[in-house]
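help with this.
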Amino acid sequence: QLAMIMGGRAAEHLVFNRFTTGASDDLKKATEIARKMVCQWGMSEKLGPLTYSEERNAYLGRDMLQHKWFSNATVKMIDKEVRSLLNESYQRAFSLLETNRQVLDYLAEQLIESETIDGNLVRETLKKPPAVN
């Protein structure tokens, strides 16, 4: 799922060799999921099957930290694990798009022509990729 979310940013990099703000919402979502994987779902080999969450109290529209039961070193490790998950997901997305560049270009052309594409077109294109020009 993370690689799929990072696909927009990876496609920008692959096609235009630069990043824009276009994928900012995707980055936000991917970061939230990666942080939940590490902090709530215990999906980090380095940190183990533990929950690292903080109790928060919404007051005047702000989240205020009430209790912190883990060290600054753990916070740094959490950040490192989140960053690692995002980097791995980005690299996976980039590699898949690079390998399937003709599919990416074809689907982009279809999107420009039709303004929308659906899952069926994507699946069919992946089953039988267009010929390389």
User: Anything to note?
Assistant: The chain has six helices and two strands. The mean pLDDT is 86.
